[in-house]
Structure formats: C-alpha cells, structure tokens
Amino acid sequence: MPPADSRPPLTPGTLYLVATPIGNLEDITLRALRVLRECTVIAAEDTRRTGQLLKHFDLHKPLVSCFHFNEARRGDELLDRLRRGDTVALVTDAGSPGISDPGVRVVQRALAAGLRVEAVPGPCALIAGLTISGLPTDEFHFVGFLPHKAGQRQRRLDRLQTVPGTLVFYESPFRIERLLTELREVFPERQVVLARELTKKFEERRQGTPEELLATLRQRPLKGEFVVLVSPA
Ligand code: SAM
User: How much distance in Å is there from the Cα of 85 to the middle of ligand 1?
Assistant: First the structure.
C-alpha cells in the first residue's frame, strides 16, 4: 500500500457511497476515513448520528441531510454539486448505503446524469449475518424488510416459498415475534437463524425452526437489531 500522502486525490464530480460501522466503530475502513476527510461535503441520512461518527474520528466536514423524505429535492442539489466538480460522500445511519436505506434514488439519478459513482465498501448487516449463519452462501435472496401491511406481507412470503437459496430478511425488534409467527406458517420445517446485534457487545446467533425460536423468545424477549435467515427448501 502506498504511503497515505502519495495516494491520488479523490476524483472530482464523484459520488462516493461510504459504508460505516453497524455497531462497532473499529469496522470503519481506512479508505472510508480518507474519503470522509477529503470530500467536499457529506450527505447523511441522519446528520446528528453521522455527526457523532465524525466527532469520534475527529473529522470536520460540512454535513447535509439526505433521508427518505427529502431525497428527491436534496438529490437535485447533490447532482448540481457533482456537476460543478465537488466530491460527495453519501453515508446512511449504518452499513452500506443503498441496502434497505435511502440512497438508491440518488445513485440512480447520478448514473442517469452520467456522473461517476464509486463504492467505498465496508460493513453490511446482510453479509455479516449471512456469513455467520452457517447456511448456504452460494445462492441467497435478499428480501430486506417485508411490507408492514398484513396482506402484502403474506403475499410476499407466499412468493418466497419457491425462491431458491438462503432467504435473508431485515427486521426490527418490535416485529421479530410477528415475523417468526409468519415464518412458522410458511416455512414450518426450515431452519431459521437469528443474527442479533452483529459486531456489538451482545452479538448472538440462534438457530432453530420458527416454532423453536418462538419458544425461546417467550422465555426471554430479545432486543436489538436482527438479520433473520431462512435455510433453502
Ligand atoms: N444499510 C444497512 C446495511 O448495510 O446493513 C442496513 C440498514 S437497515 C435501515 C437497518 C436494518 O439492518 C436493521 O433493522 C437490522 O435488520 C439490520 N441491522 C443493522 N445493523 C445490524 C446489526 N448490528 N445486527 C443485526 N442486524 C443489523
């Protein structure tokens, strides 16, 4: 690796998608730190949260918010900046921007405008959960969050019955029991892995059928963030 000061500067007019830790600050990459240090501006899903990250690493950079509800308007401003030759780092609350969080639309618009988009890869809950699951990784299907409405959830789950490979869901702690109850209906015999609080102090992996996992949850409700993985048929 060349010494830090001989590395080429960031490419003007580039949107950098910077992955940030999903719970353990040691997981930030050297390249992520450099891009955050050298870019013109950081577009963040939550400026307060990203502000804390910057403070921890003693980085001082203008922050603009870019979240779900202002993505369209903010996208225009970011594209203008990129056209002028600025370098923009897009970060979301945790993990890889664009994976079940705002960012996709800005990327699509930047690409459509012929602008350069670069990934600064790093933590991603999907990959962390999949790799510790012990389930097949050669073929997997990322579902992310299911819709909230009961009917839509049911239809989505029904369609997944014929999808090959390991299924990977994101779920909030408030709906984990609901998801397991639904999985019990659709996939009663399959092995399910709960990957909880990945990279954090109370990281935990639990495996069983949906019914077995529901039984353990009834004994002790689980808090925190989850990746839920379902073994292939
Ligand atoms: N972009 C992120 C990524 O690359 O993983 C995901 C953002 S999404 C809004 C947040 C969801 O990711 C959580 O509800 C949870 O399902 C999952 N997640 C994030 N951090 C996690 C962690 N440390 N352990 C387990 N799951 C996590």
Answer: 32
182: containing domain: 125-230
**Predicted structure pTM score:** 0.94
Number of domains in the chain: 2
The encoded tokens of residue 35 equal 């891009």
Are 131 and 195 part of one and the same domain? yes
| Contact 45 CB / ligand 1 (< 6 Å) | no
Looking at the fold, whether 131 and 149 belong to one and the same domain comes out as yes
64 and 133 co-located in one domain = no
Tens-digit pLDDT profile for residues 199-219: 999 999 999 999 999 999 999
Q: What average pLDDT score do residues 94-113 get?
A: 91
* Ligand 1 contacts CB of residue 199 (under 6 A): yes
Whether 222 is in the pocket of ligand 1, judged by its Cβ within 6 Å, is no
Amino acid identity for residue 125 in this structure = A
Q: Looking at the structure, do residues 201 and 223 belong to the same domain, yes or no?
A: yes
Q: Is 172 in the pocket of ligand 1 (CB under 6 A)?
A: yes
Q: Which of 120, 155, 170 is the last residue of a domain?
A: 120
| pLDDT tens-place string over residues 170-180 | 999 999 999 99
Determine the residue of 46, 67, 106, 227 to mutate for testing ligand 1's pocket, defined as the one with the most ligand atoms within 8 A of the Cβ atom.
227
Nearest alpha carbon, ligand 1 atom 11: 170
Question: Is the Cα dihedral 19, 21, 27, 29 positive or negative?
Answer: positive
Q: Ligand 1 pocket test: pick from 170, 202, 228 the residue with the most ligand atoms within 8 Å of its Cβ.
A: 170
Orientation angle between helical segments 210-219 and 176-186, nearest 10 degrees: 150
Verify that 87 and 139 share a domain, yes or no: no
Over residues 31-38, the mean pLDDT reads: 98
Q: To which residue do tokens 């609901």 refer?
A: 178
Same-domain check for residues 182 and 107: no
